[in-house]
Design brief:
The chain is mainly α. 76% of the residues lie in helices and 0% in strands. The chain has helices at 3-28, 30-37, 43-74, 77-97, 101-104, 107-136, 143-147, 149-171, 174-179, 184-201, 207-212, 225-229, 232-252, 256-262, 268-296, 298-321, 326-344, 347-352, 360-376, 379-388, 393-412. It starts with a helix and ends in a 31-residue tail after the last helix.
């Protein structure tokens, strides 16, 4: 791959990193700013209020998937990618300057709520927009490798957020963090989004979209629910193949630190370090697995993930609970993330390869956002519910069960590696005669 290919990967995935940095720091810094937006009283109630506003973002993701997926199919991938990062930049600025309860009463909480609504819209559309762009802008033999950088950028966003939290905790007093230090990550997020906005304003549209935007859908129905319903089998397939992957991903990334601290009894600093180190290795694994899928196909990796998650989740989670120290916890966490890599490294291109150009962005965005809201966004809450009920091991079986459902899908779905993106669905609505070979766009 040459310089231009790497440039496309960078532009297509950089916004994803900023999006997930902003998304992650809200959750990780909530303990510091919860008291700023709500009256003095029960600390748990304050955290519940901020957690409730956090949850609103997940419910907005399907709306963002529909809205920005429609923009991506009707106006182009560039338009959708530019809009998503604009929304995220606006949300970061709002949180950074939101007035406290002492200044504006519940007005500050209202600003926080609006910011989270914008974040939910943005993240709901960013996944599909970047997945579609990275898949379409790559040469066919590199689609798995190029699209794997979506999860690299997502994970790097979390790593940067986690690293910033560690630095601030060690360089600032707790009083300063609670008073004003919590605003720093949101200021950084807004600046990062502004840089990505500039990069995306100068990116080019993919040739696949420019040449075959009307192929595979009825005339005038690009990016509509009606057109998506004509491909309902593929839409439900996206939900089913996402189910197991998103639960496992959130379990071993977002929830892992809390699990190691609350259930395994590791000190918070040790639990944080385990997550930090595991995520770095996880990010490095994505392009290797993506490249492997370009050689052997997507289904072998998906099936390997599902088999591993189905049969290894219970033993891994059980052993993690009794890890006791850094190295055993890190080893088990890495084993789990190696298994999850079979899904995360290629799920973006697999979904994009299922749909024709005229409905590809919406086809990826809406079903994925629904699955993520139902299973990924609720993973931590389900885990804590099982723990609170005294049957924490029930959550291990829940994760394994979700993976088993996805395994059935992987075993029965077709291989997508060799699909010509310009011809997907053209036999249904050949509005535009696609070219037999589409060259990757020069970005």
């Amino acid at each position: 791959m040459g310089r231009e290919h790497w440039k496309k990967i960078w532009v297509g995935s950089a916004g994803n990193m900023v999006e997930w940095f902003d998304w992650f720091v809200y959750a990780s810094f909530a303990t510091y700013f919860a008291g700023a937006f709500f009256p003095e009283g029960n600390d748990t109630a304050k955290l519940m209020n901020t957690a409730g506003i956090f949850a609103v973002g997940f419910f907005m993701r399907p709306v963002g998937g529909w809205l920005l997926g429609r923009v991506g199919d009707r106006k182009g991938r560039k338009a959708a990618l530019t809009l998503t990062v604009t929304l995220m930049s606006a949300s970061a600025v709002l949180i950074a300057v939101a007035p406290t309860y002492a200044v504006a009463g519940y007005g500050g909480a209202a600003v926080l709520l609006i910011a989270r609504l914008l974040q939910g819209l943005s993240v709901g559309g960013e996944y599909a927009a970047s997945a579609t762009y990275l898949t379409e802008a790559s040469a066919p033999q590199h689609r798995g490798f190029a699209s794997s950088f979506q999860y690299v950028s997502m994970t790097v966003g979390q790593i940067v957020g986690l690293g910033l939290q560690i630095v601030l905790q060690r360089t600032m007093s707790a009083e300063a963090l609670h008073s004003w230090g919590w605003r720093i990550p949101f200021i950084i997020g807004a600046l990062g989004a502004a840089v990505v906005f500039y990069l995306r304003r100068n990116m080019l549209e993919t040739e696949v979209y420019e040449e075959t935007a009307d192929a595979g859908v009825a005339r005038g129905e690009k990016g509509t629910i009606k057109a998506l319903w004509a491909h309902k089998r593929e839409a439900f397939l996206v939900i089913a193949l996402t189910m197991g992957g998103t639960v496992a991903y959130y379990t071993y990334t977002t929830y892992l630190t809390k699990y190691l601290s609350n259930s395994a009894g590791l000190p918070k600093q040790t639990a944080t370090l385990v997550s930090f180190c595991a995520l770095i290795v996880f990010a490095c694994l994505q392009p290797l697995a993506g490249r492997l899928s370009d050689r052997i196909g997507r289904r072998p990796l998906l099936i390997t993930f599902a088999l591993g998650s189905t049969f290894l989740t219970v033993p891994i989670m059980t052993m993690l609970q009794h890890a006791g120290s850094f190295w055993p916890a890190l080893g088990l966490s890495l084993l789990a993330l190696v298994v999850v890599t079979g899904y995360t490294s290629i799920n973006a291109c697999v979904k994009a390869e299922l749909f024709p150009t005229g409905i590809r962005a919406l086809g990826v965005a809406l079903p994925y956002a629904i699955a993520n809201a139902l299973f990924g966004g609720t993973a931590e809450y389900v885990a804590l519910w099982f723990k609170d009920s005294g049957i924490e091991s029930g959550y291990y079986w829940y994760v394994a069960g979700c993976a088993a459902v996805s395994l059935v899908v992987y075993l029965t779905m077709r291989e997508t590696r060799d699909i010509d993106l310009a011809r997907v669905g053209a036999e249904r609505h050949p509005a535009v005669e696609p070219t037999s070979a589409v060259k990757p766009v020069q970005a």
